[in-house]
Amino acid sequence: MSVNVKQLAAEKAVEYVQDGMKVGLGTGSTAYWAIRKLGERVQQGLKITAVATSQASEDQARELGIPLVAFGDIDSLDLTIDGADELDGELQLIKGGGGALLREKIVAMGSTRMIVVADESKAVQTLGKFPLPVEIVPFAWEWTVAKLAKLGCKPELRRSGDELYKTDNGNYIADCRFEVIASAPELALSLQGISGVVDHGLFIGIASMAIIGKNDGSIEIIEGETHL
Ligand SMILES: O=C(CO)[C@H](O)[C@H](O)COP(=O)(O)O
């Protein structure tokens, strides 16, 4: 039987959750397994409160009986567990493949620790193969997309069937194809300088640990620093 490497990494991360913690729930097919395992532990008596980063994760958590609060009602979180589209050895990430990057970033930055869970295909030397998701406001999106292209990428507005894809916040996502991202911090600064950009999928200095599930059934852990 083949190993479910996403499940392997996600369930390892859930071992770090302790009674009384406030936990951020990520989004995507790897975070799904973490939420599922957390649900199991809650049913066995674990006492936590959680904040979801997307409607999908909120629905899953509610179904499993995980107590949810709005992030606005608490000051901070202890731990967030979330997936990534790419991660490098310095724990710099590309996120947003599932369209939830803005809430994911707010929740991760409001957490003492963020554990990234991923399968080994997500681990790269240099970020950039995965098109960088950038959340932009619908107003004058053409102007914003033209500005993004000037940063040396090919931006494409994400679609959902015949419609333009809209995030949980009512914005669009421009998926920006770079050949390679030589300096993620420099690119992050340039993106923040474009008015129509709400946020982008570069997570720099946010993740404190990565748990990577490998095809041979082993787990690699990369430790960083907590940022709060
Ligand atoms: O950033 C995300 C959603 O916005 C996800 O964490 C990322 O896309 C990874 O997803 P998956 O675990 O399904 O590969």
UniProtKB/TrEMBL annotation:
Record's keyword annotation contains Isomerase: yes
Keywords assigned: Isomerase
EC number, UniProt record: 5.3.1.6
Sequence positions that bind substrate: 27-30, 82-85, 95-98, 122
Active-site residues, record numbering mapped to chain: 104 (proton acceptor)
Pathway: Carbohydrate degradation; pentose phosphate pathway; D-ribose 5-phosphate from D-ribulose 5-phosphate (non-oxidative stage): step 1/1
Signal peptide: none
InterPro entries: NagB/RpiA_transferase-like, Ribose-5P_isomerase, Ribose5P_isomerase_typA_subgr, Ribose5P_isomerase_type_A
Record carries keyword Isomerase: yes
A GO molecular-function annotation: ribose-5-phosphate isomerase activity
Known catalytic reactions: aldehydo-D-ribose 5-phosphate = D-ribulose 5-phosphate
Role this protein plays: Catalyzes the reversible conversion of ribose-5-phosphate to ribulose 5-phosphate.
HAMAP family xref list: Rib_5P_isom_A (MF_00170)
NCBIfam families the record matches: PRK00702.1, rpiA
Family designation: Belongs to the ribose 5-phosphate isomerase family.
Quaternary assembly: Homodimer.
Record-given protein name: Ribose-5-phosphate isomerase A
